[in-house]
């Protein structure tokens, strides 16, 4: 005979019995389903993600870049010269230029100089400015920094076109001279950008820790500081390339650093403008190609920077939401601990 239970006491559970379900719930109810994982497409929908922002830039860059890279391969040998400013026809698809040369052949030959000179000028500018900017940021001596940057400040105060005109008077016209001129104009700005980025990185505690460990200045500058500012340098290089294309086209248009009869898009615009009313294709086609190239490069690097900023913002939001989810809920913990 079992002992009497006190009033209000719950009956003892027999071995193997299922636990009593809470009021309003079912013992046989399945556990709540976990939220389905986000698909890769939805997870990638962050501002600036995907390739759609690059489409306008690619559309503008396709034709001038293809002509600049592969045009000389299809130009062929020069044919007999015709009448100056002859309209399209008689074997000349786009007519003839101011000397009777075929405009289409000059278009095929004129892009490589613009692209290669601008790219080489940016590379030379960075090769000269990177050591100067790193040294000015990492020496820690005001006199050394002033000695490195003050001459560049004087050069920066002079307008770019005036520098091109003054220096070109002492140089032999040609692509090498144009590379030197455009690089010289860009060195002060690049050195300032490198110095600012390197100074911000050099102020981090890890750099001080490397110094206390006995690391050499060369290892700190090249092994850590230079590697840490690669993204900043890459972003600035895109903007710098756009400016270099503009300077190369402007210098060629003014006849600075190039021969008067060179196969160059900007030279074609300058030399053929006198007969534009008779034969406009010698001016319109190269001008459109230079414009598409400059605007396309600008849009491409602008989209790349926007994509990088969107990814950084998305990563910051994801980190913040993860931190909020991992933080304990004080109110819920208090309610759970209440008997």
TrEMBL record:
Membrane topology of the entry: Multi-pass membrane protein
Ranges of compositional bias, category Basic and acidic residues: 329-339
Cellular component, GO annotation: plasma membrane
Renumbered residue ranges of the record's region Disordered: 1-42, 315-339
Broad class of the protein's primary localization: membrane
InterPro entries documented for this protein: BP-dependent_transpt_permease, MetI-like, MetI-like_sf
Name of the protein in question: Peptide/nickel transport system permease protein
């Amino acid at each position: 005979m079992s002992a009497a239970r006190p009033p209000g006491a719950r009956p003892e559970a027999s071995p193997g019995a299922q636990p009593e379900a809470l009021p309003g719930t079912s013992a046989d109810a399945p556990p709540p389903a976990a939220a389905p994982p986000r698909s890769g497409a939805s997870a990638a929908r962050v501002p600036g993600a995907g390739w759609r922002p690059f489409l306008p830039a690619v559309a503008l860059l396709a034709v001038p870049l293809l002509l600049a890279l592969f045009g000389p391969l299809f130009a062929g040998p020069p044919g007999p010269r015709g009448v100056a400013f002859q309209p399209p026809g008689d074997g000349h698809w786009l007519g003839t230029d101011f000397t009777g040369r075929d405009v289409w052949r000059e278009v095929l030959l004129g892009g490589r100089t613009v692209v290669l000179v601008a790219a080489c000028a940016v590379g030379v500018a960075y090769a000269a400015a990177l050591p100067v900017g790193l040294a000015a940021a990492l020496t820690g001596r005001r006199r050394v920094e002033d000695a490195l940057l003050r001459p560049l400040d004087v050069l920066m105060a002079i307008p770019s076109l005036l520098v091109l005109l003054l220096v070109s008077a002492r140089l032999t016209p040609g692509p090498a001279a144009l590379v030197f001129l455009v690089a010289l104009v860009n060195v002060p700005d690049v050195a300032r950008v490198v110095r600012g980025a390197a100074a911000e990185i050099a102020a981090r505690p890890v750099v001080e820790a490397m110094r206390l460990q006995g690391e050499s200045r060369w290892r700190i500058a090249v092994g850590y500081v230079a590697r840490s500012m690669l993204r900043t340098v890459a972003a600035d290089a895109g903007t710098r390339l756009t400016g270099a294309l503009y300077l190369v086209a402007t210098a060629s248009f003014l006849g600075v650093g190039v021969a008067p009869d060179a196969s160059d898009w900007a030279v074609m615009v300058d030399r053929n403008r006198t007969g534009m009313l008779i034969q406009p294709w010698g001016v319109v086609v190269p001008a459109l190609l230079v414009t598409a190239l400059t605007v396309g490069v600008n849009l491409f690097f602008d989209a790349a920077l926007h994509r990088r900023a969107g990814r950084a913002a998305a990563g910051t939001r994801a980190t913040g939401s993860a931190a909020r989810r991992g933080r304990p809920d004080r109110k819920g913990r208090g309610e759970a601990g209440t008997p």
